[in-house]
Amino acid sequence: MKIKLNVWRQAGPNATGGLKSYDIEVTEHMSFLEMFDVLNEQLLRNPDKHPEGPVAFDHDCREGICGMCSMVIDGVPHGPNKATTTCQLHMRSYKDGDEITVEPFRAKAFPVLRDLVVDRSSFDRIQHAGGYISVRTGAAPDANALPIGKADADEAFDYAACIGCGACVAACPNASAMLFVGAKVSHLAKVPQGQVERVGRVTRMVDVMDAEGFGGCTNHGECEAACPKEISLDAIAMLNTELARAAVASAK
Amino acid sequence: MALTGLGLVGFLVGHMAGHLQIFAGKEAYNAYAAFLQSLGGALWLARAGLLGLLVAHVMSAIKLNARNQEARPQAYAVKTNKATTPYALSMIYSGYTILAFVVFHIAHFTLGALPTTEMTESGGVRDVYTAYVLDFQNPLLFALYAAAMVGISMHLAHAVSSTFRTLGVMRGKYREPLSKVGPLVGIATGVGFIIPPLACLLRIVSV
């Protein structure tokens, strides 16, 4: 099948970018990233015709668990399918003759490095501020040595499913990172291991989130719709509760 | 945003209930207006409180909007929204509409600074009823108010449920029911506010 791709090309962080069109022949079995592999092979084979070189894009596991692939495909991070990362999007979701526009995640806190690659280390810095627990290391504890209620365990697990890909920020009309931070804070707030650092964690993570230049949440719900791991908007309600709780606790 | 907004919504609902008394007739409506005027110090306290809420709400809205504009310096060439609503996306515009309307509304009724119906006295109290009814028989004035009510409806349709999430209560089993409260309050307020002027325009209520 023939696909017309409009791809964002940008030589470097400070270069001016623009959309460039490529015609490409793919099969329906290819993943979206394999299409880019094929495109890049074509671009590399014809350096005279394509002095801009291959398209830089992020990818790693290609099985939907690492959170490395990004891309905004026709205006939606990770493409049109529900609960799917870009690497798990296959060309069978498209038809012959389709035109697809591919852009990088766009946010001040996710600056473009090259083409479709953005720097998402702002998420790492938020995690460093509080997305961890401090424990004594040693032998692995026995299973069920630390009882956790079923409902709490389930909820914590759902929040822990976040792979930190940044699709929530890319989809948000305000480029807000509230769903990501909400998932990380809520996950640890729901398990006993997270209790000791609970109060300081939420304020420190939110402070870093604000300092990194993410926007503020205005409850559009685009993050939840774009999330490949279906993190619920409840994470944002929970984050707000945790913030209020921390404010009360630290005022004591 | 949420706390000040909630306070303002509380006022709106009370304000709407007050105006629906137009259907109770001239004496009842004028008595209600006279009662509000008789509050004296409490009235000024309420006015100061409302102004404070409004200023805080508008200031934080302008700040939030500026922050959100800055957070995405380069716009998408193609952006497809899957979940949001037109009224959620136009909050700042409906907000400015309401702000402009509030200024106009205070100039109109509270200050009487517009060349509309002269306020007379009836039965020893100010005849707010007659002024109100005659004013809304003016289609232009009615249209202006109707347009503002569309703005208020749209604003509240997103705002109220949004508030519940900000306050942390709209999650789990409460998510579905509370997400419907916003649009319901939005529609109810818009309709509730426009019914009395509409009744005047259609001469269902007359002097």
How would you describe this structure to a colleague?
The complex is a heterodimer of chains A (252) and B (207). Chain A is 35% helix and 12% strand. The longest helix of chain A has 18 residues. Chain A contains 8 helices and 7 strands, in the order ββαβββββααααααα. With 252 residues, chain A is α+β, with helices and mostly antiparallel strands. Chain A has 2 domains: 112 residues, Ubiquitin-like (UB roll); 131 residues, Fumarate Reductase Iron-sulfur Protein, Chain B, domain 2 (Orthogonal Bundle), CATH 1.10.1060.10. Chain B has one domain. Helices cover 72% and strands 2% of the residues of chain B. In chain B, strands 1-2 form a two-stranded antiparallel sheet. Chain B is elongated, with a radius of gyration of 19 Å. The interface between A and B is large, with 39 and 34 residues.
Task: Give the arrangement of secondary structure elements.
The complex is a heterodimer of chains A (252) and B (207).
Chain A: E1 2-9, E2 18-25, H1 32-45, E3 72-73, E4 76-77, E5 99-103, E6 112-114, E7 117-118, H2 121-130, H3 150-160, H4 167-171, H5 178-189, H6 198-211, H7 222-226, H8 234-251
Parallel strand pairs in A: 1-5
Antiparallel strand pairs in A: 1-2, 3-4, 3-5, 6-7
Chain B: H1 2-19, H2 26-38, H3 41-70, H4 86-89, H5 91-110, E1 121-122, E2 125-126, H6 128-136, H7 139-166, H8 175-201
Antiparallel strand pairs in B: 1-2
